[in-house]
Amino acid sequence: MICTIVHQLTRNLTVKQIKEQGFADYYVDHTTGLWPQAASGVPFSAATFQSTGDPIADLMEDLAAEQKARITYDNILRLVKDDPDVYDAIKFLRAREIVHFQRFGEGLRIVQDHLNSRNFYAFNPAFDKGGNNGCGNGCARNGRCRR
In this structure, are residues 108 and 132 in contact, taking their beta carbons and an 8 Å threshold? Predict the structure, then answer.
């Protein structure tokens, strides 16, 4: 949606407007085509997504990503107050990030509810559940080593 908004705002710019608006470098590489990148110019990469296989770590990563997106939308909203079409679309996206954050939070609570509450971070539940964490004393099951 962001790329579509940018395209709609830039597709009819003249070369003079492109230069005046600071889009000259972008224009050289992409004309007014869509190229997802951060405001700093760093292109989008799937490498920004993290997956560990540990549901707690992955849900925490998801929660952080939603908050970072919300902050980005907050900053965009401050810059586009005078354009109601852009403002309304960004406001919708911001609200969606908040809902995603809430759903990931609910998912985290569900995962935690199914773990031994004293042992949230001591093991990877997807890998070690019911195991003994290699020491032979049942550490992964009860959260403390009995050596």
Answer: no
> CB burial class (10 A; 0-12, 13-18, 19+) of residue 100?
middle
What does the alpha-carbon distance between residue 26 and residue 38 come to, in Å, rounded to a whole number? 12
| Closest by Cα among 117, 72, 105, 67 to 90 | 72
pLDDT tens digits, 3-38? 788 778 888 888 899 889 888 887 788 777 777 888
The alpha carbon of 79 is separated from its chain's Cα centroid by a whole number of angstroms, namely 21
State the amino acid at position 61 in one-letter form. Answer: E
Cα 141 from Cα 96, distance rounded (Å)? 38
Return all residues near 70 (Cβ < 8 A) that are at least 6 apart: 94, 97, 98, 101
